[in-house]
């Protein structure tokens, strides 16, 4: 909690100036962005998780704080955001984080990922070809989505078939602890 508070305070202090977060988001950083990312933590398993398009560090930094037993690779193409992520890694002393500057499609990772997360990066149909090649056999996508998650699944039918995804489901998280619902599309590669 202490690390999450420090990260949130720094994001509130410098996030707008660095173009990481819009001014309207500042009052609801904790309730909308940090909690929204944190509720995904129980879906992760010990192993290597890649967060595509980490941006300000959502959900990557929050998950790395919540799950010190999991290794994270934060994949982000924009230099300014990469510098911010490196800075947060050092300031928070996160030894389970590596930052890679790349687009997901071009990322050359030394190891295949067990799971991949992404938030506000692209529609499910477009995320599938970005995520699938980075995953190990039977690896899993855990993609944070808005209210249109089920529609995105329906719209991604062709890519789901092409990449032979299984166990595709929409999960609603957070209700049991009384916070705003976070939707996740979960899917497994062959
Ligand atoms: C709208 S921001 C969301 C950032 C963060 N995930 C969040 O929820 O606040 C989208 C991020 O995805 C990154 N991005 C866009 N295309 C990408 C790609 N092909 N591979 C990896 N990251 C990408 C952008 O640079 C940007 O930081």
From TrEMBL:
Q: Which UniProt keywords apply?
A: Cytoplasm, Methyltransferase, rRNA processing, S-adenosyl-L-methionine, Transferase
InterPro entries for this protein: rRNA_ssu_MeTfrase_G, SAM-dependent_MTases_sf
Stated EC number for the protein is 2.1.1.-
Positions that bind S-adenosyl-L-methionine: 53, 58, 104-105, 119
Q: Could you mention a single GO BP entry for this protein? A: methylation
Chain ranges passing through the membrane? none
- GO molecular function terms listed in the Swiss-Prot or TrEMBL record: methyltransferase activity
Q: Which domain of life is it from?
A: Bacteria
Write out the annotated subcellular location.
Cytoplasm
Q: Which family does it belong to?
A: Belongs to the methyltransferase superfamily. RNA methyltransferase RsmG family.
Q: In UniProt terms, what function does this protein have?
A: Specifically methylates the N7 position of a guanine in 16S rRNA.
- List the protein's name: Ribosomal RNA small subunit methyltransferase G
Give the organism the record lists: Herbiconiux aconitum
């Amino acid at each position: 909690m202490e690390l999450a508070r420090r990260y949130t305070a720094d994001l509130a202090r410098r996030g707008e100036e660095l173009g990481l977060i819009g001014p309207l988001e500042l009052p609801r950083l904790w309730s909308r962005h940090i909690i929204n990312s944190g509720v995904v933590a129980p879906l992760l398993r010990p192993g290597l998780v890649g967060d595509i398009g980490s941006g300000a560090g959502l959900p990557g930094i929050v998950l790395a704080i919540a799950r010190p037993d999991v290794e994270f690779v934060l994949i982000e193409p924009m230099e300014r955001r990469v510098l911010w992520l490196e800075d947060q890694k050092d300031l928070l002393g996160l030894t389970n984080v590596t930052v890679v500057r790349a687009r997901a499609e071009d990322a050359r990772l030394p190891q295949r990922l067990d799971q991949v997360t992404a938030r506000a990066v692209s529609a499910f149909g477009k995320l599938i070809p970005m995520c699938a090649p980075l995953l190990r056999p039977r690896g899993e996508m855990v993609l944070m989505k808005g209210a249109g998650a089920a529609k995105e699944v329906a719209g991604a039918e062709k890519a789901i078939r092409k990449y032979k995804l299984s166990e595709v489901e929409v999960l609603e998280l957070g209700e049991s602890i009384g916070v705003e619902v976070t939707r996740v599309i979960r899917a497994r590669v062959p």
